[in-house]
Structure formats: C-alpha cells, structure tokens
Amino acid sequence: MHVGLIGGIGPAATCVYYEAIVGSFATTGxxxxxxxxxxxxxxxxxxxxxxRAEQQAEIFARHIEQLRAAGCQAAAVxxxxxxxxxxxxxxxxxxxxxxxxxxxxxxxxAHQASCVGVLGTRKVMETKLYGVATVEVIAPDSDQIDDVHxxxxxxxxxxxxxxxxxxxxxxxxxxxxxxxAELIVLGGTDLSVAFKGRTPDYPVADTALIHAAAISQAxxxxxxxxxx
Length: 228
Fold this sequence. Notes:
single chain, alpha/beta, Rossmann fold, 2 domains, three-stranded parallel beta sheet, globular
C-alpha cells in the first residue's frame, strides 16, 4: 500500500520515521511506496499552543489531499504533538489516518508495562499520551511541564540537542522513574535526538519508532478501513 507522511514537524522526526520505515522493508523483498508532504512546524506549534485543533486539522487535510493526489492510500502525522488534532483530522481527512495512539496501546500491552512516564509537548504530557488505555501514564510535575515543553520545542525547531539539553531530558526521565515509572516514553517524535548515543539507567520507548512500525505494517498490508 502506498502510504503518505505529513513531515517537517519537525525535520529530525521525519528522518527517524523515514529511516525506520525504509529499514523495515530492507529484508522483505517488498517494494515501499511512500510520499512525504512537508508541513510548517511554526504554524503547527502556534495552533497547538492556541488550542486551534480544527484549524490545524484543515491544514493537515490539505496536505493529505496532496498525498492522495500522489497516489497515497493512507496517511500519518509524524508528530505526537501534531496528534493534538487527530480526531478532528480523522473526521475530514480524504484518506484513512494511521493513528499513533492505537499503536502505543498495542506496544504497552505487548510489553506488559503497568506505569510509564512521558516527556514531550505540554499537550502530550497533560493528556497522558492522549489517554492511552492500556497503561498508567505519569507526567512531570506541573512546575516542570513548561520547562520540558519549551526544551522539547527547541529540539523540534533545530533538530539538534546539545549536552546541556540532553542532560536535562535524561534527568527528567530519571525523576519520573523515581515517581514510579517503569519505562520512559519519548512522547515527542524528535526526542531521540536528545537520547541518541546515551544509555540512561532506565528503559526508553520512542513513540516515533513505535508509530513508524505501525505505518510499515500498514504499508505491507492491504488498503485500510477509514481509520487505523
């Protein structure tokens, strides 16, 4: 199946998705059909912070129309932050949406985690990964959420993380583990940049890779139903 990605939100996450999907096809003998439409990160962040879900969904829907015109049969938003409008998008999308949240629920069920900690944008943290159903989710304390959110947006915008910001996120994860988390979920799809080459004293799950695996499975299968 020809899949379409809404990328650029941010660029580093798009690369993670692309490399993971290509890698999943490498040994299958199957041909990957994939097209990427570039969305504006600054526009999405402004709409996310202002709570303009319907407006952002309309923007994403226009990108999906581009993907449909290119032959895509399903689409995915390569950003957990971008999932703040996923329900609104599903209602108007010209293509089925490969949603990250069901993929996360399936992952947590398979790994039998009972409590996970999440780092990412404010919306992702405050909604506890958009209300995943299979695991308890804990987020940073209210006095720390803004700092985590702001630090994450700096990574998303630049695609890089220096030593200081990487250490900040490693310690933020450690605090969540001390609060009871068994696993730290990188709830921002650019956060792998901060953890790359590092081995924290706790297990980490990357939402970008979990979602990319679901997209790969869809691409290897049949045309999906209206929602995935």
